[in-house]
Give the backbone structure.
Amino acid sequence: MSDTPVIELCNVDKSFGPIDVLHEISLKVKAGEVLCLLGDNGAGKSTLIKTLAGVHAPTRGEVLVDGKSVKLSGPKDAQKRGIATVHQFGGTYPLMSVGRNFFMGEEPTKGFGPFKVFDRKKANRVAVEEVQKMGITRITDGDRLVGGLSGGERQSLAIARAVYFGARVLILDEPTAALGVKQAAHVLRIVNEAKKRGLAVIFITHQVMHAMTVGDHFAVLIRGAIAADFRKGERSREEITDLMAGGQNMAGLEASIEGYMETHNGHPPKVTTA
Amino acid sequence: MTTQNTEQANGLSFGSIIRRPETGSLIGFLVVYIFFAALGGAVFLGAPGWSSWLNIAAEVGIIALPVGLLMISGEFDMSVGSVVPASSMMAAILCGHYELPALVGILGGLSVGLLVGLVNGLIVTRTTIPSLIATIGTMFAVMGLTLGLAVLIKGSTSVSYIPDATTKQLLGSFVGGMFNVSIFWWIGFVVVYFFFLHLSPFGNWVFALGGDRESAKNAGIPTDKVTMGLFMASGFGAAFVGIAQVMTYQAAQVAGGQSFIFNSIMCVVIGGVLLTGGAGSVIGILLGTMTFAVVNQGIFFASLDPNVGSIIIGVLLLVAVLSNDTFRALAMNYATKKK
């Protein structure tokens, strides 16, 4: 595999009218690498994902795929170039079957001309195979409704779907945010599996622990700009948390809350806005 | 008859039938039919009974199908209630007043429906107005326009038109003196919508829209186009019924048609479509329509007070929603055992 990043942002700005949401964002991900994008709520993560996924066009700056500057005309275009996004809730439809979910927007058909028919058997077979390959062995029936799956399984289904449709860049938007400990571990394992298969993964989260488990490379986003950019092992968990909180000393804050609670019968301090 | 097809297509195991969303609607239909058959006797079981409820079912059914698809995709269409009289008035004015050929009137009427659907679709996709409110708005606007233009052009709220023999035969005749030809059009529409929703790949998109519009958009589905297409389909369905009414009754009225709003929604909900979108089926809508029509007409055969019919419909609606939820929960919690 070459050293050219699969996807790269070069000094990307994005503004909605007078509001600057992203400011001079530069980042790159190589194949078989996991980039963790950390940021608190409102840091511009969603806008960044949408820019990568082709939903928004950057106001300034360039998006490079395989080292070549491209203009993504929409989500479909991004998908054609192998950029797949999996959203927080998996982007799945609870009242539809596993097979139909798996092939949403890319339905396999049989038959001719205007009488093309959705190939349910094929859809179900492929969906179950691909999900099992990712290590989810509990899904054996493609007719099962996705609403009956656990949150982790839904995420895994969405990731397996992206991999099957030739994704080379996998953008995961807070895949572990709404999950329990066990389910989150499940998803992290699948992120590792995707990485092993040579995908470039962009993992968006505000859970530092999850990021540190799978990440090779980290970028912290604060108010639309990259505040820190470092590789695995260069920063501690506390340092990253502090960075995400906008440089405030979170550890110090925690200590002061604990101190207050000790002297006030376990009640936390009243919050006063600055 | 119709349920057989779906069962065959999906394997005939008992478990898979019980989990099908149509099961509740089928049971509902059978219960209601047996109830009225017992009260209505031989007349209700014979051709006069069947023709009476099938005629009602066909009219509301042609509208309920696209309204149901819209509901599956997460939208409501209230404007059908004024599209029916608007399109029949358009056809009657074009043919009856200006004496243009029947085809012009039919196309004119249908384009009223398509246009209202297009406007609905544009409002819903371009603004943040919920479809319920948007289509109530267009309903009143169309109602006003119909009344205003009819009075302006014809000076009356009713326009008569005697269609030629072929048109009458195709759109407004009674087969065997009893069965309105609309029944056959309705069956045709059922086949088309069944193919579209359950067999063609586009059906997936309709469900996805109702399930999670944002995800559907991210999956590259042209959500706005699908929504606009569905609104135009419901406008078309309502306009079709309006035109069939002119051809049948040889006159168009400005009022009338309001009953289609709630009736179509009731047929759809009794048929197992989820009000919030994302689930439903054409067979269910078909069964829901049949149930509605049986109650609606069975009352007269059973010589019960018509008000009892309204009570039954109301109760049916509530039971349908409850049982739909139960069946859905069953389907969701179902996990296959290791083979």
